[in-house]
Amino acid sequence: MTQKPNPLSSIKVSGPIPAHLARSVIEETLRAAILDGRIPCGTALRQQDLADLFGVSRMPVREALRQLEAQSLLNVIAHKGAVVAPLVQGDAVETYALRILLESEALRLSIPLLTSEDFQQAARYIDELETQHDYTEIGRLNRLFHMSLYSKAPNRRLLKLVEDGLNEEERFLRFNLEAMGLGKLSQEDHRAMLRAVEDRDVERSVKMLEQHLNRAVVVITRYLDSPEAKNRKTTK
Predict the structure, then answer these.
(1) Which residue, of 1, 23, 61, 124, has the greatest Cβ tally within 10 A?
(2) Which keywords, in A-to-Z order, does the entry hold (predicted)?
(3) pTM summary value
(4) How far apart are CA 93 and CA 120, in angstroms?
């Protein structure tokens, strides 16, 4: 019987990790591997295996796993421990309804504090998205564009929740965007949203954001219900 490859074998650790950096190094290394799919959904991450891999005690591993759980990248399941969370599934409507609430408030708080440099950076992300063909990079740039508009919101806890939602979307887009064909529509929405933000028109900006996310719900829900998406799930 063929043994399944160990997802942790894709992670390369170069040399000893200084004790004071252990938690952050483990967190960032695992986060990158989860986002790019080297550690797939449903993988159980055992503390001792990770401690052995990184050459550290279980304490920094435990702390790193807690941070990844807080970012919605891991779920803690009874008798299995920390398990890589699934991508956006059948609860897309609920997921995006929550995102609309959180991101609308972040945008309202951020707009009065944004600078011309922030607008220029957001425009650069859109320009990059227009020409980018790598789906991993598209997911990353999409997250960065949205965060560039929300980043000046003074409520740090709100921004943390917003970024968790964008991280979840980034993971989904990395593995499904090509099949969904969302790219061009997203850029038209992004440009319209940025124009409203540059005008300091809070209500129009929030309306554009709501329309953008609601369109994503329709496309994602249709895709998840399609035979192609169901076939992708059964073959992974």
Answers:
(1) 61
(2) DNA-binding, Transcription, Transcription regulation
(3) 0.73
(4) 32
